[in-house]
Amino acid sequence: MTLDVLRRLVSVGTTLALGVSGLLAPKPGEALPVCPPGNGVSIDDFIMWDGTGGGPAPVPVRSLGACPYQRVVKYSTYDITARAGLDYVGVTEGTFTIPANVNSTAVVIQIISGPKNGKTFGVRLLDGAEFTDPDATVTLRDP
Questions:
Q1: What is the pLDDT of residues 84-117, one digit of tens each?
Q2: Paired residues of 136 in beta bridges
Q3: What is the rounded CA–CA span in Å between residue 39 and residue 129?
Q4: Are 122 and 68 in the same domain?
Q5: Dihedral, CA of residue 4, residue 10, residue 30 and residue 73, to nearest 10
Q6: Beta-carbon count within 10 A of 61 CB
């Protein structure tokens, strides 16, 4: 939708909300689709055995139950003992998708080559779902 169309919809009293996969405009009397209660999303701590070559670190994300709607979740990374730009590619605000009727996926963070010696960084889920555990610690290990 263009900004002009959005302005016209808002000016005539149409309710708009950011939803499961973009802008949704429910029909009159129709509620926005939501996941059933108890489908909280959590992100798991993760150990990346990267050697010195770097590569993708698939940090596991789980939902307590499958949701009948796609969810687009925002996340960010933060330094603990590892440093963004030196040990891993930092993300200020990224997104990933949990497809409809799926209860597990991964946030993929790129690890930069070089020795790590047990350095850690965090991944935080920000928005797009109900969270039961929104923070994970990623530990980088050399073999």
A1: 999 999 999 999 999 999 989 999 999 998 888 8
A2: 123
A3: 9
A4: yes
A5: 70
A6: 22
Domain count, the chain: 2
DSSP structure string for the chain:
--HHHHHHHHHTT---EEETTEEE-PPTTPPPP-PPTT--EEE--EEEE-TTT-EEEEEEEEESS--SS-EEEEEEEEESSS-BTTTB---SSEEEEE-TT--EEEEEEEEPSS--TT-EEEEEEEESS-EEE-EEEEEEE--
Q: pLDDT (tens digit, 9 = 90+) per residue, 117-134?
A: 899 999 999 998 889 999
Determine if the pTM surpasses 0.85: no
| Statement: residue 32 has pLDDT above 60 | no
**Spatial separation of the C-alpha atoms in residues 50 and 88, rounded to whole Å:** 11
The first and second tokens of residue 12, run together, are: 């005539």
Same domain, residue pair 52 and 10: no
Residue 113 and residue 54 in contact, taking contact as beta carbons nearer than 8 Å: yes
- Domain span at 59: 41-141
57 and 91 share a domain? yes
